[in-house]
Amino acid sequence: MATKLIRNAVIMTMNAGNEIVQGDIFISDNVIKEIGANLNAQADRVIDAGGKVLLPGFVQTHIHLCQTLFRGRADDLALIDWLRQKIWPLEAAHDEDSVYYSALLGLGELIRSGTTTILDMETVHHTESAFRAIEESGMRALSGKVMMDHGTEVPLALQENTQASLQQSVDLLERWNGAANGRIQYAFCPRFVVSCTEELLVGVRDLSERYKVKVHTHASENLDEIALVEAERGMRNVVYLDHIGLAKPNLILAHSIWLNDEEKRIIRDRGVKVTHCPGSNMKLASGIAQVPELLREGIKVGIGADGAPCNNNLDMFQEMRLTAFIQKIQHGPTVMDSRTVLRMATMGGAEVLGMENEIGSIEVGKLADLQLLDLEDFHVYPSYDADLFSRVVYAATRGDVDTVMIDGEIVMQGKVVRTIDRTRVLK
Ligand code: GUN
Ligand code: FE
Fold this sequence. Notes:
Blueprint: E1 3-12, E2 20-28, E3 31-36, E4 45-48, E5 53-56, E6 58-64, H1 79-93, H2 96-112, E7 115-120, H3 127-137, E8 140-143, E9 146-147, H4 162-176, E10 184-190, H5 198-211, E11 214-219, H6 223-233, H7 237-243, E12 251-255, H8 261-270, E13 273-276, H9 278-283, H10 291-296, E14 301-303, E15 306-307, H11 308-311, H12 316-331, H13 338-352, E16 370-373, H14 388-395, E17 401-406, E18 409-413, E19 416-417
Parallel strand pairs: 1-4, 1-5, 6-7, 6-15, 7-8, 8-10, 9-10, 10-11, 11-12, 12-13, 13-14
Antiparallel strand pairs: 1-2, 2-3, 5-16, 16-17, 17-18, 18-19
Helix pairs in contact: 2-3, 4-5, 7-8, 12-13, 13-14
Bound molecules: guanine and fe (iii) ion.
EC number: 3.5.4.28, 3.5.4.31
Pfam families: Amidohydro_1 (PF01979)
Keywords: Hydrolase, Metal-binding, Zinc
């Protein structure tokens, strides 16, 4: 059994009381066993936090690792044109190696900016490469191949046969679900209703029940997307997903900006989860999600950066600030306090993934997914009476992340990511 002791940290637990504890953490293998001041424990490895801030790792509930290499493409297009003109042709051009390096680059950036769990959506092909990169990086991830057996202007290389799409997803699931000590899970990823036949979606519904895994899709991101769904299926997005029996607690909807009352009611009553992607929603001019209202309704909402071309980086610090700013400018300064935002980035994400008993906070019995932030700031030092929640949400940057641990393993230390050098190795 490997043991670690992190000494002398300011621990933002993100537990139900948002407690901050000054002290130590004892970790055995991948589990937090003890938290307290001056723990009297022997450990194989002792890490002196030197009074730095220890936070749970961020949980990002919508990422496309396969798009990391597409950064800087199409700054001025809205969703459907952006997909048709830029993203789908680029995904069609991916090969085994480019998916691997795209994923590794994204994973390095995610770890460097304190993210320890992702819900990811890959492209149609070469998903095996992404899983290999995830396994090597140490990231905790739910991921799957994208599914698209329908839609105009989809490049030939991305057009799938329905049964083949389902079968390939199951093959990947059987190989990767539960891999790496349970750190990797499979999630079915029908891209969005626009690119999926009803037969495919019904197949996903049945298989996700049989294998007890998540379904990760995009819904109600953009007005043209909604119009396409209504024209073809005669229903709004979420109503249609409910109609075919997909609206259940294992369904995670990315964006969900333009929900009407009926759709919000379905999401709430069926326990469907939502991911907010503020940077992407602004850059693609998709719209402003009704996050405060969704939270008030008791709907679980996480945060995700989406793909790199949607917002140009995969940094939760930026997404947290955007989450607050975009609501404040509409609804006033008190609509999104920093505790709520930091909660969405940690426990909120864990709840979206149904992993609230395993990750998202620093509590005894939880998995050791942690980030150590160096917030020392000489020109205001020692004003530590500043609200730490506010400092993390509004002032911290990815450059402040010093050490990251996932599943009890140190994946970044002294700002060096264990796997990052490999991302520079182009064949
Ligand atoms: N909707 C369908 N596919 C995508 C995608 O790749 N990115 C975003 N932001 N929305 C989508
Ligand atoms: Fe997306």
